[in-house]
Amino acid sequence: MIDVHSHIIPGIDDGARTMEMALDMARQTVDSGVTHLVCTPHMHWGTFDNTKAIIREGYAALLESINAAGIPLTLSWAGEIRINEMVPVWFKDDKLPFLGQINNQQVLLLEMPHSNMPAGLDQLFRWFRNAGVQPLIPHPERNRDIWKQPEKIQWLRNQGCMLQVTAGAFTGRFGDHVQKIAEEMLIKNQIDVVASDTHDTLRRPNEMGAAFERVSVLHSAQRAKQLFVQTPAEIVAANSVAT
Ligand SMILES: [Fe+2]
């Protein structure tokens, strides 16, 4: 499986705190059936002020340690960008790292606040599409506005967004309500990618293997392969910031 969302680079966000912890996460990720992991630290203005340079430096140290430990996992890096008014400026200044490409569009992991869907999203998404950027929205199933108005999921798709559901949503890690939303999204074919969004090995572990099995049962093995392997592989294959 190809996992496009993780917080494994140590010490630069709310994921791994130490290299030792990052190596444990990498081992757990391999045990879960993942062969390639994209490191996507938060780029959250005022909270986690990560830049491409900071991420690249942390990534290089992680890569070296994972290779030295002999862990059979390939890596690339990007970021999870929290929506804010500076994002279009960052794009123009080449400050945004992309997961890769799909359909000749650059794929950006673009996070909404957990509490709500901010005003002006339609303009932002239109602006991105015109700039050749394909937003991939992580974990819509955990957004409070979507809990109140589930029809917003289809609205996001109608805006041209791809949607990434978290593996743990299918294992019940975020509760029954989130699990129900994820399952309904699966049945309605509203999911493009499933990823772990792993932050540690206990509270937010990598559950890609268990989620793959669950999706295979709920829908089909073919759909599971598409969401956990094929679409993420297509995106990552074009990652120009892999090294
Ligand atoms: Fe994340």
Q: How are the SSEs placed, and which strands pair?
A:
Blueprint: E1 2-3, H1 19-31, E2 36-39, E3 42-43, H2 52-68, E4 74-77, E5 80-82, H3 87-92, E6 100-102, E7 105-111, H4 121-130, E8 133-138, H5 144-148, H6 151-158, E9 162-166, H7 167-171, H8 176-187, E10 193-195, H9 208-218, H10 221-237
Parallel strand pairs: 1-2, 2-4, 3-5, 5-7, 7-8, 8-9, 9-10
Antiparallel strand pairs: 6-7
Fe (ii) ion is lined by residues 5, 7, 80, 138, 197.
Note down, in words, how this protein is organized.
The protein has 243 residues and is of the alpha/beta class. It has a single domain, classed as Metal-dependent hydrolases (TIM Barrel). 43% of the residues lie in helices and 16% in strands. The chain has ten helices and ten strands. The longest helix has 17 residues. The protein starts with a strand and ends in a 6-residue tail after the last helix. It binds fe (ii) ion. Fe (ii) ion binds next to loops. The site of fe (ii) ion has 5 residues, from loops.
